[in-house]
Amino acid sequence: MCGIIGFTGQTEAANILVEGLQQLEYRGYDSAGIALNDENGTKVIKTAGKVAMLREKVDQASDASGTCGIGHTRWATHGGVTTANAHPHVSNNITLIHNGIIENYKEIAASLAVKGYKAISETDTEVAAMLIDSLYSGDPFETMKEANKILEGAYGFCIMFKDHPGEIYCMRNSSPLVATVTEDGAYIASDMVALLQYSKDYFVVPEDHIVVMKKSGIELFDIETKEKETPKMLHVDWDTTAAQKGGYDYFMQKEIYDQPEALTNTVAPRLHNGHVDFSADGISDELFQGVNRVIVCACGTAMHAGLVGRNIIEAMIRIPVTVELASEFRYMNPILDEHTLVVIVSQSGETADSLAALRLANERGAKTLSIVNVKGSSIARESDHVLYTHAGPEIAVASTKAFSVQCAGFYLITLKLAEIKGLMTDEEQADFCEQFEKAIGTVEEVLKQDDYIKTISEKIKDTFSAFYLGRGLDFGLASEGSLKLKEISYVNSEAYNAGELKHGTISLVTEGVPIIAVATQSSVLPKLMANVEETKARGAHVIMVTDKDMTGYEGAFDDLIQVPEVDDRFGTFGVTAALQILAYHVTVFRGYDVDQPRNLAKSVTVE
Ligand code: F6R
User: Fold this and answer.
1) pLDDT, tens digit, for every residue of 362-410?
2) Rounded to the nearest 10 degrees, how much is the dihedral formed by the CA atoms of 203, 207, 208, 209?
3) Atom of ligand 1 nearest to the CA of 354
4) Is residue 549 part of a domain?
5) CA-closest residue to ligand 1 atom 5
6) Residue 600 lies in a domain
7) Ligand 1 atom closest to Cα of 303?
8) pLDDT tens, 117-164?
């Protein structure tokens, strides 16, 4: 949440900042601003609204020159969407931007009021600016160290001190910051995507560290010991086009179409001669030995990937799996031991609830493995082991390709567990690999049905509500399909285990209400279709999404999205792509911004 960028160097900063904010807009888009700080003083330009509005203001500004500055795009936590609440915030000597939440801001504000400080905005961030100003002794480092002792909550700050023109001081406890340096200058951002056009080499600012950015370069310090450290550089192999729309109308559309490549990049390097091989990931077999239970912790879409994972692991290798919402897990007092494998799933690797769940699992002695897309992210760094997905950057707020590769991660883990526990013969493992790769190959075919799925989307575009049905593994897919539709099109959509509908919710099924029924599991197909018939009998508009042969069921549905048939274990990929395309087109028909749905932001770094 909230996008942050900072630059100091030899070139004009304003354009770098605004362009960076455009790349980061998916992290929050209710207001945006920049500040420049040089020998002539500090200039702040900010506005409620999207980065495009900031761009206009910057272009019209009488003076937006300067080679050192910071920029921010906001996802509101404290205080409404107004220009006054937009960052940067200024308090006398201090101009800063912030990602995170200051939990004790009310107490701090009260103590500062006595000293005459009065906030202009309703934000926790302005209080942090006032606090740092009140502590300022002329030594930025010492001042930040003092502030760090007082501030409670989560933060990544970029701070400019009026009497240190050309310099930016950044401090992180938990909210992510990454930095790089090139011959043009030093850059910092909340996310590598904003820096891609300048460098593919970067470092993640470790927690409880301070970064000092000067025209001469970047220095990294431990906040407590003040010791200077050598940053641990990482390399990203995404090219600059990976974070661009590349001719598609929306990032979400592009990312749906990225899926064949993302899946191949995630799976192919790990399958060798009919076996799964994690040696390049540094994941030792020892991790899986002695595991008698798996707990998946994640949020939103990533949690739905866990539902798919649960079904495949339990069905194929009979190890009990529970799937927990990360936001609940840490308050459940979970029972964990060294035989429990906790799998954290996260595209960003920064989701605060998932990170907290991981920390609890580590504390309580469970084994931890994360399925993460962003290299060097907090979850990746703090897990015992990481299985990176190779989806490339995901920009649309609604997750698509990340879900598919997370599911693929669970298939790989299942195969590894089966091998280690001696639950599959060599032939069975080879067959698993063959069917898995075949299923991935069908996604390309599903994408070719885009126009056809669009015609079905048009039929349901005006609905107020919709229900997704599925049994077993298909409930996970239905849950994800439903989330996709509701988060971007604002259709009031819910997923149900198909057999459960008649225990209450069927009362909401009336004439024309869309029922999207997902069927990839032959064993429960007759039961699912019985449930579907029950809705049809009440006038529902039934859309079947399936890879199975529907001969004999023709009267039970109105529309059929038929994806290529695959082995029952691997129905995940084709159906997922079809459901994403459906949600996408409904949203376009309804005229909403597909990539930036209201109230949302990508990478939820607050609890
Ligand atoms: C929905 C969506 C969210 C995320 C969730 C977890 O389309 O993207 O539900 O899946 O916020 O995010 P990560 O995977 O970054 O932990």
Assistant:
1) 999 999 999 999 998 899 999 999 999 999 999 999 999 999 999 999 9
2) 0
3) 16
4) yes
5) 300
6) no
7) 10
8) 999 999 999 999 999 999 998 999 999 999 999 999 999 999 999 999
